[in-house]
Amino acid sequence: MTPLGLNFGKLAGMCGGGVQYHGYCGVSLMTVRSKKFIQGDGGWNRIAWMSQEMKLKLADVMPESIYALMPTEEDTVDLNELETILSQRKHPIVEQFWKDGKAVPLEIPGPGEMWPEDKERFGE
Question: Is residue 112 predicted with pLDDT exceeding 80?
Answer without folding.
Answer: no
